[in-house]
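Sample intake sheet
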Amino acid sequence: MIKNIFKSVFVLAFLRSIYYIKSMAKRILIVDDDLFIRELYEEILKSEGYVVETASGGKQGLEMITQNQYDLILLDIMLPQIDGIGIITKLKESQSKVPLSSIIFLTNLSRDPVVKEALAVGVRSCLIKSDITPEQLLEQVKIALGKSSVKQSNNSSEQL
């Protein structure tokens, strides 16, 4: 009987520690219509301990952004239903409390006026998906969340 009580107490303590760790983890939303990119970024970020949710289109992404709280949002510019800039516009129109500094645009368009327009709306930065490695993605996420080492953030801060 004492053995069963000890097991129960141990299991309860273990579950509480898992809940505590998860509640401390940063929440990230990835909004991208490209399944490969969504799954790749999700796997990379989850492996680093982040809590990651995904959306495949602009409408779903906007709903998730307005109904939940995220520490960081990786938002593709070109999306079905509502594009990334449209999402930002709707957030501004609704006077949402979502800080635009918590949003990083994703795109494959490196030299397009859309990138300049995207940055002009006030988001944190814009990452070119075709040019970024998994390590660089992680570093940019850490910088955005304030978790980068001083040496690395000094080298990377010009990219933001």
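Comment: Helices lie at 2-24, 35-47, 58-67, 84-93, 113-120, 134-144, 150-156. The beta strands are 27-31, 51-55, 72-76, 103-107, 125-128.
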